[in-house]
Amino acid sequence: MYFVLACKDKVRLPAQYFSMKLEDSLSQILREKYERRIDKDAGIVLALWNVKPAGDGVVIAGDNAAYYEVAFDVLAYHPMVNEIIETEVSEIVEFGAFLQLGPMEGLVHLSQIANDFLTYNKKTASFTGRESKKALKKGDHVFAKISTVSMKGSIPETKVGLTMRPDGLGKDEWLTAKKPLEAAEGGEKKKEGKKKKSEEKAS
After folding, report:
1. Which of 83, 110, 161, 178 has CA atoms 20 to 30 A from the CA of 100?
2. Full set of structural domains in the chain with CATH
3. What is the bridge-based pairing of β-strands 104-109 and 159-163?
């Protein structure tokens, strides 16, 4: 899930930045500190803007720098447990499928892709269901639910687990293929109901 957050920080501005426009120098320092980094509360910081110093800087004797209280906005991404996401398959491997999640990837383990026994084809890098014949490959458009999140100190270390087994999730074709079957089953039930009523009247 994406968030826009209003933040504050105290920034040390070294003397070599004094020749630059204040907002530009503060923005550069803050971007180096926050962008593409993980904050345990905010998540992954993707962008930073609207940097505004609050008043004049403070100079401390013996420190060749000025200190500023700064307000700024950030765009952050934080995967949330039970969040439903719409995305694409970025990679198929023998043990599951990786899905694109904003600036990172999450894993749908083989056991969580579908309610069927899946066969992995190494040549085509795809899965196929033994009974349902459901197929999954790189680039497929899918719906999935985030089941586990382990935020670490960096993007590669952060782990996100997903599932596509619950109803309403999975590949687009799986969902649209299910609707005509459900409609047909519903029609059969209605016919059976009418038949029973007519039999009751006849008796």
Report:
1. 178
2. 2-77 (3.30.1490.120), 84-179 (2.40.50.140)
3. parallel
